[in-house]
Design goal:
With 516 residues, the protein is mainly α. The protein has 4 domains: 107 residues, no CATH class; 183 residues, no CATH class; 71 residues, no CATH class; 139 residues. 72% of the residues lie in helices and 0% in strands. It has 18 helices and no strands. Helix 10 runs parallel beside helix 12.
Amino acid sequence: MGSMNDFTIALPTIVNMVFMFAFGACAGSFIHVVAYRMPAGLSVISPPSRCPVCGFRLPWYQNMPIVGYVLLRGRCSACSVHIPVRYVLSELLMGLLFVAIYAVLFLPSSADFWYSVGEGWWRAQGVIAAFPALVAVLWGTGALVAMTMCDARTFLIPIAIPRWASVVALIAWPIAALLARDFSHPFPALAPAWPVCGAAIGAVGGLAISRILLVAGILPRSFEDWGDYAESEGDVFADYPYARREMIKEVAFVGPAVLLGAVGWVVANHLGAPAEMHPAVGAIFAVAAGFVIGGGVVWALRIIATVLLDTEALGLGDVHLMSCVGAVFGWRVALIGFVIAPFVGLAWWLGNLFRKAPMRMPFGPSLAIGSFAAFFLKPIVATAVVAGLATMAHLGGWARNDPSGALAVASVLAIGAAVSAWAARKTGGIAAAASIILMVSAVVAWILAAHMRPGAGAVVAGVLVACCVVGSAVSGAGFEEESGPRTALSRILRLLAFVVVLVGAFLLLARPGSPS
């Protein structure tokens, strides 16, 4: 009797999970179509699913996710050609992913892992009341998977994918706030500080104005003549010689957003926050702030790095991807995901070194994985952040106790990085990875100790910049016919030299005092 009662209690959860798997499999089937048709400029609706070889149109029962593939035994019923397994894998992946999302948001756990992820609100509302918010999260998840598949295959992200996810978030989160029946737990889409709300609305208005001016032909499009330098149609790696010039166009585009964002901040700060704000209105502000912050950080880094490296750094697709993340999951998730992404990309890059795989890697998948981790693995990420901060505190204590030693270590590491960069001319990827690790460690050691010994810190800064310049010169793109580990090393070393100069200028302006 007890087991029967337990089953009766668990039955609604089982039904929900089965539904989520089926729904996810259907979404996976559609996402696969989106990922393969949109980059090619094809409609995702017409023509209906058919065999790419013989053109046989699949009847409805053969088009069922997973089941249709099993019934057909992986072959077309008309011409018997093999159906790529990626179709069923995408359906299976999305089905399992949707079940996992339901679990982390709604199911209790004795370890409180899922509860920490859902922050309590999801469980308190239940599936029905939280359904609009769930739609926003599921749509955003599907969009991230679709963008990952597009970027990994073509190095392009169709802008319509993140744009529609942001629109859905703007509609769904306020509706979720209207339907919420329990506010004892924090609403996931809480409005940020009032000046930030004003800045976000102003920035969105500025982007709308720039978009109108762009469509009207008043503002020029950046990289509009990219195709003139492409070796073939669809070439996304053309050696474009005017990347810095194109950033002037992008600065002109974001200028109204920055200006109106500043005006919005000042006005909101002057008027003061309202005495009371409905959660639905706060949700609108939260989506707008996430959209602006998520995309703004990436766009700022894109402009700065492109000017520094004289080659397009990041892509506008990455900007739209992180705007989508901020709108759907919140600005905190966007920022944390952006911090996690380079570590994901580095792991991928190192894996390619040892597998001798192609070195060209899109950054979109790393951003998507980092954003997933920031939202769905909050307890694990929080633990890792605490451990990382503790390590930095320990290193900072060492640098304070022995700043001269830390600066000496930084110099030795920088020289070792330059030697490794020279060795990378012959040995390739492993030496390039070693050079990056050594130089990053040198920069960190210098940052921790430079303010303690300003004079010696300035000298070591010169050593670091010189080593970066020399390492970049001896491992530059001229030694490779196409972009590879040495090209990546050259660009990263230039970027680190810029970081040293920027931090050094800040320390000079701040003029920190020497320890007593």
